[in-house]
Specification:
Layout lengths: L1 H38 L1 H4 L2 H11 L1 H34 L3 H15 L1
Helix pairs in contact: 1-5, 3-4, 4-5
């Protein structure tokens, strides 16, 4: 029931957004979402799964070493992915509006 309700609300939400924005702006929103989703998996790298496994096995010993290591790797990965996303996007952007969308979604990657 939860999945059905979630999908139903998503349908209504997308329908309303598409009607309010119009074809061109909604297309740019869809482009931004696709651009964002292309780079998003590279920011996590499955590190949180690794962290939860290491810390739960031996909390006191593993946490002191693993948490800073995972945070450092994640910071480095997010920085590299954001710079790559931004540079590729801005070089290939056809208009200023697309450049702005790429900048906004790059900031979303960092967040």
């Amino acid at each position: 029931m939860t999945l059905l309700m979630s999908q139903g609300l998503r349908f209504v939400y997308i329908f309303c957004i598409a009607r309010l924005l119009g074809a061109e702006l909604y297309g740019l929103l869809a482009f931004g979402n696709a651009w964002y989703m292309m780079f998003l998996p590279l920011t996590g790298l499955g590190l949180w799964i690794y962290l939860s496994q290491k810390v739960t096995k031996n909390y006191t010993k593993s946490a002191r070493r693993t948490v800073p290591l995972v945070a450092s790797i994640r910071f480095l990965a997010v920085s590299i992915v954001a710079l790559t996303c931004l540079s590729i996007g801005l070089v290939n952007a056809d208009s200023e509006l697309i450049s702005n969308i790429i900048i906004i979604y790059t900031l979303a990657l960092v967040g």
